[in-house]
UniProtKB/TrEMBL annotation:
GO terms for molecular function: oxidoreductase activity. Pfam families: FMN_red (PF03358). The lineage of its organism: Bacteria, Pseudomonadati, Pseudomonadota, Alphaproteobacteria, Hyphomicrobiales. Transmembrane segments: none annotated. It comes from the Bacteria. InterPro entries: Flavoprotein-like_sf, FMN_Rdtase-like_dom. Residues 16-161 form the NADPH-dependent FMN reductase-like domain. This is NADPH-dependent FMN reductase-like domain-containing protein.
Length: 206
């Protein structure tokens, strides 16, 4: 397999400075273990560790720490957008990340290819309420709109009992069905990323 790289943005509501661990972090870690088994190198950043200004431009000016994260997303072959569910929605942090990528719509080259063309995106979700499929659907459409390619079985998730107390981070290893989902996501994402790395989209003639 050609050398591939995955970059994840953990859109937890907790910054790294928070002493409490993150279930989103645990799911990303489990995904990375599977990616590394198929030769994909991995890197993760926690979005709240950076000052991501609100807006729909790639650089919102002084103090905006989005541009380096944007570059890491584009330098990777596979982008992992990871988040918790709150009120049945993607976390507010994840929504801000997607808003910032709206700038890709205006950054297409002369053949209509956006910066994310040829990049694969997958979504990881955790929560103690229903709604993972809804969150996946919202994220898939946004990511596809700005140029990412979504592979088959591109979502990994765990949701506990509604209003329950158990969290994903409490598992020493993923439940069987979650692991099966992770393995399929990784296999399909790596396969598609390899294809696109060797032969990306041609775009259209002006």
């Amino acid at each position: 397999m050609a050398s591939l790289k995955a970059f994840a943005l953990n859109c937890s509501l907790k910054a790294s400075s928070n002493e409490e661990s993150s279930s989103t972090e645990k799911l990303v870690s489990d995904l990375f273990k599977a990616f590394e088994k198929v030769g994909v190198s991995c890197e993760v950043e926690r979005a709240l560790d950076h000052d991501i200004k609100p807006g729909v431009e790639s650089d919102m000016g002084e103090g905006d720490q989005w541009p380096p994260l944007r570059q890491k997303i584009l330098d990777a072959d596979i982008f992992v957008l990871a988040m918790p569910i709150w009120l049945g929605q993607p976390s507010s942090v994840a929504k801000r990340v997607m808003e910032r990528m709206d700038a890709f719509l205006e950054e297409a080259d002369d053949r209509g290819r956006m910066p994310a063309a040829g990049k694969v995106a997958v979504v990881a979700v955790v929560g103690n309420e229903d709604g993972a499929h809804h969150v996946h659907a919202e994220c898939y459409q946004a990511l596809n709109d700005v140029g990412f390619t979504i592979p088959a079985n591109a979502g990994a998730y765990w949701v506990g009992e509604a209003m329950g107390s158990k969290e994903y981070k409490e598992f020493k290893s993923p439940p069987e069905k979650v692991q099966q989902t992770i393995d399929m996501l990784v296999s399909n994402a790596a396969h598609l990323a390899k294809i696109l790395k060797n032969a990306s989209y041609p775009g259209v003639d002006s």
